[in-house]
Design brief:
Alpha-Beta Plaits, single chain, alpha+beta, 33% helix, globular
Length: 82
């Protein structure tokens, strides 16, 4: 199952989030090497991220997402892809 995740971040938390960005990038690289994350796109203002993820189910992808360092700051929408 492939899904596009639209992840929004509240701009008022950007300062608190900045310390976690290196760990977030490392986590993304690890998931890309495993084939779980296929692509990532970031808006110019860094408040929206689009991820293409692949997994067995939406529940598995939600579990993978919950391990992201920035997860507490995320508002996520899951969109199934064909």
């Amino acid at each position: 199952m492939r899904m596009m995740l639209v992840i929004q971040f509240d701009p008022q938390h950007l300062e608190a989030m900045s310390a976690l960005i290196p760990k977030e990038q490392e986590h993304i690289r690890e998931l890309m090497s495993k084939g779980i994350v296929e692509a990532i796109y970031v808006s110019a203002d860094r408040t929206v991220v689009w991820l293409i993820m692949k997994g067995e189910s939406k529940e598995q992808l939600e579990q993978e997402l919950s391990a992201f360092p920035l997860y507490p700051y995320m508002k996520t929408q899951f969109i199934p892809l064909v």
